[in-house]
Amino acid sequence: MARQVSEINAGSMADIAFLLLIFFLVTTTMDVDTGITRKLPPPPPKDQEDIKVKERNVLKVLVNKNDRLMVNGKPDDISNLRAEVKEFLRNPDIHSPNSPENMPEKRKEPLNFPILGGDVWPSKGVISLKNDRGTSYEMYIKVQNELAAAIRELRDELSQQYFGMRFGQLADEKKIKAIQKTIPVSISEAEPEDIGGK
Amino acid sequence: MAKFKKKIGKGTPGISTSSLPDIIFMLLFFFMVTTTMRDSTLLVKIKAPGATEVQKLEKKSLVSFIFIGPPIKKQFGTEPRIQLNDSFATVDDIPEFIEKERQSHDEADRKFLTTSLKVDKDTKMGIVTDVKQQLREVGAFKINYSTKKGFDK
To answer: Which CATH number fits domain B50-149: 3.40.1000.10, 1.10.8.870, 3.30.420.270, 3.50.50.60?
Structure first.
């Protein structure tokens, strides 16, 4: 005696789905957010004295308000920056506490990474990046990009040498840590100075 | 023989549309998964600079955005301005903004909060530096300079 249930008409299902589809197409965006991630240093204490760093341990990179570059006192072009930074931060013999005369010193305390074959002395070299208030953001990002690229390439080389693959391909947390610690992102951004106006 | 003759004179059968809703639903789910909701309307023009060493921004819910660029509407001037959420702001509003962002997240998540700076490429560094100094003051150290992948030719 069951009453016959009339079938629901599914013909308009497509229209409903289309409506939803168009709604989502309009309200959402597809762009993936990408960018260069950096960590800001904590604000300096009020009474802090200038930390003395030896000249050979610092690579000074200055960008002025006309987007011109100066590396260690000499005018330079952005296309050379990556090679210079690589040359500066290169750590050819990570197992030795000493470095050649014209290279930055090594840190006093070695790090122990059995994966890399024992004690490792990272370089003390620091890149000091200083920009003017009038520098364009585009140029600043270009410089940051070159610095990041140099460090990435150095890490790749080290990773290639010890693990036979590029740094980006490493999956083992321990290996990633070891490489990161051996070649740290040593970029120091100077306290801003107001020169040159807007 | 008759079997074959039957077909003659019969027009092409109509294409069945019964699977159309399924296809559309598939598309719908594809778009729902791959896209994200537009959360704030931009009041400033932003043309992101290009870079090659870009990283993907993980965990969108833990990211707060600061937009800096020239206003889209001309009546607000042409100088680059800061946009927080849906309105214009000044550098002094940033600590409050960051504090609010912190309050709206779990205690455990707070240390993963990232601030993404979406800055127009023609902006001068002065305003960006001011923002960065403010972020340092309030302890929002993790930042991300939003860039596109690849350089403009």
So the answer is: 3.30.420.270
Q: Taking the domains of chain B in order of start, what are their residue ranges?
A: 50-149
Per-residue pLDDT of chain A (198 residues; tens, 9 = 90+): 567 778 777 778 888 888 888 888 887 776 667 888 888 887 777 777 777 777 778 888 888 888 888 888 888 888 888 888 888 888 777 777 777 777 777 777 777 777 777 788 888 888 888 888 888 888 888 888 888 888 888 888 888 888 888 888 888 888 888 888 888 888 887 766 655 444
Chain B interface disruption, residue of A8, A29, A32, A36, most B CBs within 10 A: A36
Tell me how far apart the alpha carbons of residues B143 and B152 are, in angstroms, rounded to a whole number: 24
Return the number of CB contacts < 8 Å for A and B.
153
Answer whether A124's CB lies under 8 Å from A55's CB.
Answer: no
Q: Kindly report the nearest CA distance between residue B143 and chain A, in angstroms.
A: 6
User: Chain B contacts of A33, Cβ < 8 Å?
Assistant: 56-57, 60, 63, 116, 144, 146
Which residue, chain included where needed, has tokens 């299902």? A13
Task: State the DSSP string of B32-61.
Answer: HHH-EE--S---B---PPEESS-EE---GG
